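Self-study notes.
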Amino acid sequence: SFPTRRSSDLISDNYATGKGGGIKSGSDGPTVLINCTIKNNQSQTRGGGIYLDMGQGAVMNNCLVTNNEASETGGGLYLAGGGGVWSIDFFNNTVANNISDGISGIALYQGATMNIINSIIWETEPIMETSSTGHENDISIDYSLIANGINGVNIYEGNVYWGANNISSDPLFCNADNSDFTLYDNSPCVGTGQDS
């Protein structure tokens, strides 16, 4: 695979018999996703919306990841560190209404570091779980809305750095059932993010 750089793209209605229904990116360079919508994609294994494997780092900013499906795990995103040390900066994103038999939101494995700021991760199933095979995963979360709060982050090996500015109440999407994930004026998210 090759370095992935996408800006202002709509990635939708794709199907993969393997990993990464919408996007699959590997180890040949950084993955940069800005102002992208990744929706209605399906993977028969992992990463319904996005699958990142053994990357050299990644940045996601102002992206919407919704209504994707993975049969195994990582309905929204599957992030694998590959046993190395790499990180993903995850700013101003929304992950919601994804489906999986495993983790519906974000699955983080094999020694990756994730920094989450100003984001919404809202799932009905456990929304974020981390596991590895002898490699620690570290997650830092602040100024974000996470369903079930810190209890929505399940970790086996590694650390969760939970900031003081996170919230867990309903984000009040305008009409999520019809894929409208804009926020009502009285959403708890309005006016509570970190200035960029």
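Second protein, same conventions, sequence then structure:
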Amino acid sequence: TQNSLSTAQDQFFTSYKVSSVDINNNTSGTSNPVSGHRLHYGNNLIGMPVLPDNTSVSTVLESLGLNANAIIGQGLASNNVESLGWGGSLTDIDPSLGYWVNVTSDDMLIIPGNAADCESIDYSLTLGNNLLSYCCDSDVDLSQIPGSCQSIVGEGVAANYVDGLGWVGSLQGLEPGRGFWLHCSEPVDNFNWECE
């Protein structure tokens, strides 16, 4: 018997769990999650809430092969060289951080692994810009952002907090699997997302 699975992904990011049923109605356990990011040519600002036990750049980006050129984090980067593999100062992926992933052509980044427990991640936000991910399972509005952080920039979208008006701009909320820059006017320790 040969099995196959195909999915149509029209969203930017999704996470799947798989179970199977045989002809005798025996059901398997549910698999660990598998995430998919639909990447476009060029730079993609993403977060990776599903990661394997081995979080090395080469393992996490393995499904992209040589289509992946580079990955950039906050103050770290690595390049994919055909004859050498991945090299640079960015060696491991953290589910709390955002990353720019550069690909040569449209592709699907597939990552099997374990989902991060987003609510238990303690973020320490620094003065200035912070490159973060949003790792909860569902969208959330910008009201969870700490009061000392008043600007947020995603890929092609942004918003600013304006006294009396609230958040104003093209970025209306945080979505799973996305990365963003959050600008804070003072440090914030032990910040956590409240997943809904």
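Instructor comment on the second fold: The two ends are 40 Å apart (CA to CA).
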